[in-house]
Design goal:
Layout: E1 4-12, E2 17-19, H1 20-24, H2 31-38, E3 42-44, H3 52-67, E4 76-80, H4 91-99, E5 105-109, H5 115-128, E6 135-142, H6 152-155, E7 160-169, E8 175-183, E9 191-192, H7 204-208, E10 215-216, H8 218-239, E11 249-252, H9 257-267, H10 278-281, H11 288-298, E12 307-314, E13 318-325
Helix pairs in contact: 3-4, 8-9
The protein binds oxa(dethia)-CoA.
Oxa(dethia)-CoA is lined by residues 29, 33, 37-38, 113, 152-153, 156-157, 191, 216, 218-219, 221-222, 225, 255-256, 259, 283, 314.
């Protein structure tokens, strides 16, 4: 089988910074509490009028430039997002048009924060089967748009950003070695957006009841998330005959530093080999793993030949992992 390889990475975060100090003025919280319980110090928030596709396009342009690929060469676009510009058309559709891609196929994948691993995995399948030569896989969110800034359980975490990867057939040993995707709908009520879909279409009442904002049982999410991280990392390592020691860099979904530390400890990975940027970006949903991977690469923490392990979890629940030889 052909191996899919990341040949270009891009990332974009809105310019506007929201610090913990600024949040202190909005809800009953403190910088100290947020740092101690989450590791987040600041996050980026989209400007008014700045939508998910605007962030996605910037990340995608950078990824294409770095790949030396033209928009017209893109055969398929997949965007992981839970905060698309509109209910429809898809954000991928808007990206296709505004990037100047030809009328290539495009689709959004709704897998909450695991949208990063889902989009990467789905995009890679098309390259691996030989169906497409150039796939643009993107994770993009404006989670601030579904954040209740009177709810201190969520507004301290959620934020906006986009990341992108250009996938092409590999001509060497580098590439995406394996991916795993999981879901279990029994946990849907731990993290969801009640209104705006067919169950509770938007009405004055749903807006008055703040049902268009994300609701989260943070404490319960925390426990399930650690277990899922550990399970999926263990399985992908085992199937590929690898041990935690073989991994050069673990790039987890940036949800909460304590979740990352707990998972890394149980998996047996020292924090020196775990990439963390949750302190500066907060939880950017489907963008998070892409943004972290791009930053790790830009900082020189990802070198040719390195074995990378990516993993994420999110509402639904969804979770998954990817193994990459760089
Ligand atoms: O991508 C997946 C998305 N979600 C996640 O990954 C979220 C996972 N969960 C978490 O990150 C954490 O559960 C939170 C950061 C949301 C909350 O942290 P926690 O350590 O689980 O706190 P808690 O909910 O157990 O609350 C402990 C205390 C409570 O006060 P009492 O009852 O002990 O007096 C809360 O009311 O902290 C209080 N509290 C806060 N205090 C200051 C909760 N949120 C805040 C806050 N500032 N923002």
């Amino acid at each position: 089988m052909i191996r899919a390889k990341i040949v270009g990475l891009g990332a974009y975060a809105p310019k506007r910074v929201l610090t913990n100090k600024a949040l202190e003025k909005m809800v009953e919280t403190s910088d100290q509490w947020i740092v101690r319980r989450t590791g987040v110090r600041e996050r980026r928030i989209a400007e008014e009028g700045e939508a998910t596709s605007d962030l996605a396009i910037r990340a995608a342009q950078q990824a294409l430039e770095r790949a030396g690929a033209e928009p017209r060469e893109v055969d398929f676009i997949i965007v992981g997002t839970t905060t698309g510009d509109m209910a429809f058309p898809t954000t991928a559709n808007l990206v296709q048009h505004r990037l100047g891609c030809r009328t290539a196929g495009s689709a959004d994948v709704y897998a909450a924060c695991t949208g990063s691993i889902y989009s990467l995995s789905i995009g890679a399948q098309y390259v691996q089967t030989g169906k497409y030569r150039t796939v643009l896989a993107i994770g993009a969110e404006t989670l601030s748009r579904i954040t209740d800034f009177t709810d201190r359980g969520t507004c301290i975490l959620l934020a906006d950003a986009a990341g992108a990867a250009v996938l092409r057939p590999s001509d060497d040993t580098a590439g995406i070695l394996d991916t795993d995707l999981y879901s279990d709908g029994q946990y849907w009520e731990l993290l969801y957006q009640p209104a705006g879909g067919s169950r509770n279409p938007a009405t004055h009442e749903t807006v008055d009841k703040r049902m268009h904002y994300a609701k989260m049982k943070g404490n319960e999410v925390f426990k399930v998330a650690v277990r899922m991280f550990v399970e999926c990392v263990g399985r992908i390592l085992e199937r590929n005959g690898l041990k935690a020691d073989d991994i050069n860099l673990f790039i987890p979904h940036q949800a909460n530093l304590r979740i990352i530390e707990a998972a890394a400890k149980r998996v047996g990975l020292p924090m020196e080999r775990v990439f963390v940027n949750v302190d500066r970006y907060g939880n950017t949903g489907a963008a998070s793993v892409y943004v972290a991977l791009e930053e790790a690469w830009s900082m020189g923490r990802v070198k040719p030949g390195d074995l990378l392990l990516l993993a994420a979890f999110g509402g639904g629940f969804t979770w998954g992992a990817a193994l990459i030889r760089w």
